[in-house]
Write a structure and sequence with these properties.
Blueprint: E1 16-22, H1 27-37, E2 44-51, H2 57-64, E3 69-71, H3 79-92, E4 97-100, H4 109-114, E5 119-123, H5 135-142, E6 146-153, E7 163-170, H6 177-201, E8 204-207, E9 210-213
Parallel strand pairs: 1-2, 1-4, 2-3, 4-5
Antiparallel strand pairs: 5-6, 6-7, 8-9
Helix pairs in contact: 1-6, 5-6
Bound molecules: glycinamide ribonucleotide.
C-alpha cells in the first residue's frame, strides 16, 4: 500500500500537503487547522480547502484563515465530471493527502484511483456499525451503550476502508441524539489530527484490513 510523503520535523523539509474537502460546518477542518497552528500536528500544511457547496460555512472559515479555497458545485453535475475537476484542482495544489471532513458526497472510482490509499474520512460511528447518514441518531435509536467515531482510508465502498483509529463515547441515560452527537464531535476533533499524524509518519503497515503501527525503534 503506497503511503503519503512522510513529513519531517525539520523546518527545511517539505511538509505533507493536505487537501481538505468539506460540504458544511467545517468543525473537523478547524480542528485540524488548530492542531497545525498549535504544533500538536507537525510536518503538515493545508494546501487547499475545497467544497462542493458554495455557501458552506467551512469554506468561509477557511477564507478567514487566509487559506487557499476552491469551490466546485456538484449539484446537477455528473459525478465523474465533477470529480475530474476536483482531482485536477488537488493536483494543481500539489496535495499529498486528501482529508474528507464532512464531505457529503460519494467519490467516483476515478477519484479513489487518483489518490490510492491517500484519502482519509471521518465518520461519526464505530464502523462497521451505522455507515451512511445520521450515524449518531442510528446508534442512539438502536440503543447502543457505546458510540464513537472512526477515521479510515477511503475505498470504493461507503464508509468502509481500513480503519486508522477509533474513539469511543459512552451513551448516557439522559442523552438524546443531539447531546450524544455533540460528545462524539468532541472526540472527532481529537481523532482526526491524531489519525493524520499517524498516517503522515509513514510508520505503519496495512495487514489485510488492519492498520498496524510500527514498533518504536530503540537506538
Ligand atoms: C461530522 O460529524 C463527520 O463525522 C460527519 O459529518 C460531520 C461534519 O461536521 N461525516 C459523515 O457523516 C461522513 N459519512 P463538520 O463539518 O463540523 O466537520
Amino acid at each position: 500500500m503506497s503511503q503519503p510523503t512522510p513529513a519531517s520535523s525539520g523546518s527545511q523539509q517539505p511538509r505533507t500537503r493536505l487537501g481538505i474537502l468539506l460540504s458544511g460546518r467545517g468543525s473537523n477542518f478547524l480542528a485540524i487547522a488548530r492542531a497545525i497552528a498549535n504544533c500538536s500536528l507537525a510536518g503538515v500544511e493545508i494546501a487547499v480547502v475545497l467544497s462542493n457547496v458554495a455557501g458552506a460555512p467551512g469554506l468561509a472559515a477557511a477564507r478567514e484563515l487566509n487559506l487557499p479555497t476552491e469551490c466546485f458545485v456538484s449539484r446537477g453535475r455528473l459525478r465523474a465530471e465533477h470529480d475530474a475537476d476536483v482531482i485536477a484542482c488537488l493536483r494543481q495544489h500539489r496535495v499529498d493527502l486528501v482529508c474528507l471532513a464532512g464531505y457529503m458526497r460519494l467519490l467516483s472510482p476515478g477519484f479513489i484511483a487518483a489518490f490510492p490509499d491517500r484519502i482519509l474520512n471521518i465518520h461519526p460511528s464505530l464502523l462497521p456499525a451505522f455507515p451512511g447518514l445520521d450515524a449518531q441518531m442510528q446508534a442512539f435509536e438502536y440503543g447502543c451503550t457505546v458510540a464513537g467515531c472512526t477515521v479510515h482510508f477511503v475505498d470504493e465502498h461507503l464508509d468502509h476502508g481500513v480503519i486508522v483509529l477509533q474513539r469511543t463515547v459512552p451513551v448516557l441515560d439522559d442523552d438524546d441524539a443531539h447531546t450524544l452527537a455533540a460528545r462524539i464531535l468532541e472526540q472527532e476533533h481529537l481523532a482526526y489530527p491524531e489519525a493524520i499524524a499517524r498516517v503522515v509518519s509513514g510508520r505503519y503497515r496495512i495487514e489485510g484490513r488492519r492498520f498496524v503501527a510500527h514498533a518504536a525503534q530503540i537506538s
